[in-house]
Model the fold of this input.
Amino acid sequence: MIKVTFLPDNRNIEVNKGTSLLEALAKAGILIETPCGGKGICGKCKILIKSGNTNISNLEKKFISPQEIEKGFRLACQTRIYKPIEIEIPSKIRLNLQPVLSSFLKGEKKSYKKNLPLEPEVEKFFLILAKPELDDQRSDWERILEELSRQRGRNHPPPQISLSLLKKIPALIREADFKITITLGHKEVIAIEKGNTTNQMYGIAFDLGTTTVVGYLIDLKKGKEISVVARTNSQIIYGDNVISRIEFTQREKNGLSLLQKEIISTVNEIIQEIIKCTQINQKDIYEIVAVGNTCMQHLFLGLDPINLALSPYISVSREEFYLKAQEISDLLLEPETKVYFPSNISSFVGSDILAGIVFNSMWRKKRNSLLIDLGTNGEIVLSLKGELWACSTAAGPAWEGVRIAFGMRAVDGAIDKVKINKRRINWHTIGGIKAKGICGSGIIDLVSEMLKVGLIDRSGRIVDREGCPAEISQEIKNRIIEEAGERRFLLVKSNEKEKNKEIYFTQKDIREVQVAKAALQAGIKILLKEVGISVKDIQVIFLAGAFGNFINKQSALRIGILPDLPLNKIKSVGNAAGKGAELILCSQKIRKIGNEIYKKVKYVELSSHPDFSREFIEAMSF
Amino acid sequence: MIKVTFLPDNRNIEVNKGTSLLEALAKAGILIETPCGGKGICGKCKILIKSGNTNISNLEKKFISPQEIEKGFRLACQTRIYKPIEIEIPSKIRLNLQPVLSSFLKGEKKSYKKNLPLEPEVEKFFLILAKPELDDQRSDWERILEELSRQRGRNHPPPQISLSLLKKIPALIREADFKITITLGHKEVIAIEKGNTTNQMYGIAFDLGTTTVVGYLIDLKKGKEISVVARTNSQIIYGDNVISRIEFTQREKNGLSLLQKEIISTVNEIIQEIIKCTQINQKDIYEIVAVGNTCMQHLFLGLDPINLALSPYISVSREEFYLKAQEISDLLLEPETKVYFPSNISSFVGSDILAGIVFNSMWRKKRNSLLIDLGTNGEIVLSLKGELWACSTAAGPAWEGVRIAFGMRAVDGAIDKVKINKRRINWHTIGGIKAKGICGSGIIDLVSEMLKVGLIDRSGRIVDREGCPAEISQEIKNRIIEEAGERRFLLVKSNEKEKNKEIYFTQKDIREVQVAKAALQAGIKILLKEVGISVKDIQVIFLAGAFGNFINKQSALRIGILPDLPLNKIKSVGNAAGKGAELILCSQKIRKIGNEIYKKVKYVELSSHPDFSREFIEAMSF
Done:
């Protein structure tokens, strides 16, 4: 074992010879940004080796200058550990998602306090059993079944019981003087406990996001949300989008198993935090419901995701799936705890979207609605009075700061709001600290404002200083810079605030935004065309996903991310996926509805749609 | 680890310090007789220590003379191993059941050759799946389910699949070019295989007897019995009846786990032997059905049997039980193989008797019948045109040679047939070798013949020489010996054949036979009384159990083991339990019938029955 020290944390771990630095970081619990998923093609994971390893690959030389090489800079993803090493991890590449998470959670709390409808799959029954007599020689299990049937009604088939629970019965019921509580779920026994424990009954709804995993603890007796805990999906170190993670499973031996371990470890952290905060017992958690995109479901279950990424894009299973916690190694739940994965709609429209449909009652026949879920991917669902269509677009990366020169996640120091008028530029950073880059909502504001004052034209081209509208001040005009044939806009000057570095928004960045918004817009157009209605026929747009809570709708409308509808018809619904998962956890009826509609959602595959290219190109302009 | 050598086998094993000699014998695979279950109260497990241990307990001194102690005789059950030791195991205490098993199997083959009705729980379907296309993006599992549903009919609910099988699907169906065979059982997927394997489909029916375990391999495609393999239940070393085994689970730490391991190891031996003999693949065995008495079911599953032995005699579960082979550690079957335990009727009337009822169609409304299953226990079932009553009696031990001075199991050297007339005594031994003792069928013959010629009277008393009928020869009269106030009958003289030792049948032995037959007779009487019919109303008696094939019915009738009916109404049906298990394996319909009638069988608890004592005493006379 070789010692690795991470600075400035001064955290020490030991790893096997040849371990990759990414793996070592994961082991140490330090999360860093690896947008390309560790392939060595983005150059973002630059770290500083203070002592130890010195080799460098040609790949790394593309991203690291000779002076930097001299100092010890390397790419974390290309470094393997062969001898004791000290490594400094610069704060700028660390993932510090606290601000996003807390505002995310704030958004949750605000919009969602009502009680949940209560008819959970998990049920508890307190049974007082007749004691055995010579003229009542029923078996222990029969005694339980018959008392249960008396309470529940005779029309329920008897639940199945596992051998391991059956083994516990004779001692348990006698110690409990034949007074026990039995917990059922999905036609099986989940637990048998001494005495009356019917008041302790919890479940957790999980939204397994590509970037963020959120767990909602629900009191299944009262139908109330007790606790919400979010954590960064620690798979992120192996790729920040599903495609790079799928590639990782193919590239690395045991890649699938590594990714499964990471998501399980994130879920375990959430469970532990929930238990710590609420002081409930782990054994009182009887069911978890997990929604996520189809790839996350595959990675959690350890199903090979490769065919999701290869045309014609096939999942192993999109059907609802029940399992016991014991089937997933290391999951910190009682062995018999139920784990329920609702159905996925398609390979790229997961159960998170099904949960969103359910949460927003889009299956009802009452109106036409559109759900736009902007996360790392962008999914769109259209409801024509309950008839459903869905598609998925690669609309996300730009909004997460990926492929944008100064792009970054919505963490401390990210510009999240921008205002431009004739004379002034105002911007705001998360945490109110010095600007380090620009995140999704800032990008949308910036493009929208530049468009508004005429700094870019409808085609997305940054105008030259001469082409600027006359009323724009010279100070602003001077921010348009042309160098090596590419125009860019200076958003933050190095001297504007102390120590602020210059932040630019380039012509190429605008093209990325155009591609992302065109993908989304083309998706919406094609869905509308498939259904045969126009934007005007839509009564409400649900804007979901963490992102949906923070963007300026006016800006989004102006640059065409959202269809042209009055602002009051656009409703931010927060994390619809998580809220839908809560409903599925709390209501058998809603669970059934979800499992009835998933096959009825008509999935429109955009990549092979005959109109997609044309719509996409047409949507490029603002 | 300490070396133990068994002579004359010269077999060496190593054990931990303090291991009991019984355990060491089990480990070495040497089976010996331990009628009392290792409690040190029968003194039958006498072995000779050639070198090593020398301690002796006071308990042992009761059974071993000072001269024997000097030589190194000890009781195996009381000896623990602390230093290297050489032990001679006398052949007379070894269990060598080959002759019984082979005649047992011969009996099977003879009486049971017809094809089985075929509609097994296990079903196979060969599926040619549509290959994925951009306009057919169904998941792998959905593709399978829909093709399955097309073949099977839409009215079947989709089967459940385990996560571990689901994981295998994507690679398997692509390697198989989308041509696969799926095996279903009890609403679940048991296997998914490449190509068309519908012709390979096997199951094993097990009769888990207290003494003998029999496995019947069935070709579930053809409904034919392919192979029958029997083995001594290796639990026997820890007690030769269920009560002594239950006591063992309480007395020994890990006793239950030890007993479970033994029965699993016996079942594994049978599976291996079947595979070896038939050359089938282990993976082609998709279901096993196991019947046995309630205690054997508990011990196989690892359920605590203690409450079976304590009034009011309660089982953990008597309901039918499905599990997967993987839930039983070390069972040599594929993890997903179904293991089915049919329902037990009561704590002392197990699924073996249910199988016997099913096999003899006693549930049909066509006639009145009586089933007598004589194994280590005696179970009786009465059918009044399909209405069923059952009871269990401790009728067995004497028939197995237990508690009889020269009693032994039906192995080589056991006297199994006896004829006495005025002048001569003829007897026959199993294997035709010199007589070592007398087994069950010999005991019945002997008592019956002694009764016939007047050597014992109706009360069971051996008459004195003077009291003998006049026509009896002096030679025979001289065989009646009176010593220390007890009479006994000299069956075999030491000089009758070379090296033959003297074999006696004592007054006490006759009392044991009287107790056993009285228990059986009282049980039958009470059942008849409960139902309100007389013996004359019975149209047929089924005589089941290994024993049932070998006894002389005339002798059994004379001494009152069988009710007084014409011989042609008494039908030996062989191992009805095993044959019933075969039917349950082959026919869903019969399985269902079994599971419908088990609760309708009215169990009569003899121990608390008000008439039992009286009937028992009345039945003591011949």
Confidence is low (pLDDT under 50) at residues 97-113 of chain A. Chain A touches chain B through 49 residues (CB under 8 Å). Residues 104-112+201-341 of chain A form a domain with the Nucleotidyltransferase; domain 5 fold (CATH 3.30.420.480).
